[in-house]
């Protein structure tokens, strides 16, 4: 897969995740957050399982115990991020959740440097600053109105950042992105079910009433989107992937306006433009610089 194709796939993932905020909020009108997480990733596991088995049969090498443990750890990061984000949606808006989740674009390169001394392409740092400014403007250019749900969403963003970094650091070399996705989903479904049974009342009638939202959240924004992320991330660095995936903030705002009645302030449109500028920078400037070096040499 070319880097350009991987980048387009990551932008598609951002769109699928952006609408996922709407579906998750709809589901939580009648279900608890842990129940939504459990159902969402149970559905994702069922969708991905046959593809993971097919991938395993075709793989030239088997996975070692360390690989399985790393996959499970990445699954824990995904569960922690999803649970924090889902609980946060109880008190924050779809638009705010989309914006604050996008803060992982800042956290990914920082975690990569702090944990593994992995320094990104120099263009990533100014692009991160531009994307961060864009996310701030999307939220109205102020932070005084934040509620506890917003804090939980930021915590979720940190776990999503760790998921991205660990996929890049440990999982890409295995050549088993679909298997990684399946393990992630099984871990999330299991932990979500334990939490739901311990803290929430699970109602079959309530599940049926929001079945379309659950199907989208489980099959599309989880099963398909996270698997596409794992596949595409093998061809771009974690910081670059994070900036591309920050497009979900824009899509969350768009779908929140269409389906949930959320409205952007005029300054928010400038935020959208800045995020797009950051995406274009990490996609075009490194290639342009490489061409200049080749021409000079």
From TrEMBL:
Keywords: Cell membrane, Membrane, Transmembrane, Transmembrane helix. Residues 8-139, 148-282 form the EamA domain. The keyword Cell membrane applies. It is found in: Cell membrane. SUPFAM superfamilies: Multidrug resistance efflux transporter EmrE. It is a multi-pass membrane protein. It holds the Pfam family EamA. It comes from the Bacteria. The chain crosses the membrane at residues 37-56, 68-87, 99-116, 123-139, 145-166, 178-198, 204-228, 240-261, 267-290. This is DMT family transporter.
């Amino acid at each position: 897969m070319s880097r350009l194709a991987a980048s387009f796939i990551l932008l598609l993932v951002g769109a699928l995740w952006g609408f996922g905020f709407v579906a998750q909020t709809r589901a939580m009108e009648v279900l608890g957050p842990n129940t939504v997480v459990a159902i969402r990733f149970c559905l994702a596991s069922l969708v991905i399982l046959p593809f993971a088995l097919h991938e395993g049969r075709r793989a030239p090498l088997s996975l070692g115990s360390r690989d399985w443990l790393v996959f499970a750890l990445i699954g824990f990061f995904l569960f922690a991020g999803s649970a924090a984000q889902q609980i946060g949606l109880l008190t924050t808006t779809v638009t705010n959740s989309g914006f604050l989740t996008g803060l992982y674009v800042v956290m990914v390169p920082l975690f990569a440097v702090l944990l593994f001394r992995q320094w990104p392409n120099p263009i990533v740092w100014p692009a991160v600053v531009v994307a961060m400014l864009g996310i701030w403007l999307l939220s109205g250019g102020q932070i005084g109105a934040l509620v506890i749900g917003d804090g939980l969403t930021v915590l979720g963003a940190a776990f999503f950042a760790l998921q991205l970094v660990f996929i890049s650091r440990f999982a890409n070399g295995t050549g088993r992105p679909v298997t990684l996705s399946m393990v992630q989903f099984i871990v999330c479904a299991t932990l979500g079910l334990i939490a739901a049974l311990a803290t929430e009342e699970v109602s079959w009638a309530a599940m049926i009433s929001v079945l379309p939202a659950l199907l989208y959240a489980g099959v599309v924004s989880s099963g398909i989107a996270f698997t596409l992320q794992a596949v595409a991330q093998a061809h771009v660095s974690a910081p670059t992937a994070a900036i591309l995936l920050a497009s979900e903030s824009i899509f969350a705002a768009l779908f929140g306006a269409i389906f949930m009645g959320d409205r952007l302030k005029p300054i928010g449109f400038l935020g959208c433009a800045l995020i797009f500028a950051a995406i274009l920078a990490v996609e075009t400037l490194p290639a342009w610089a490489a061409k200049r070096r080749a021409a000079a040499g």
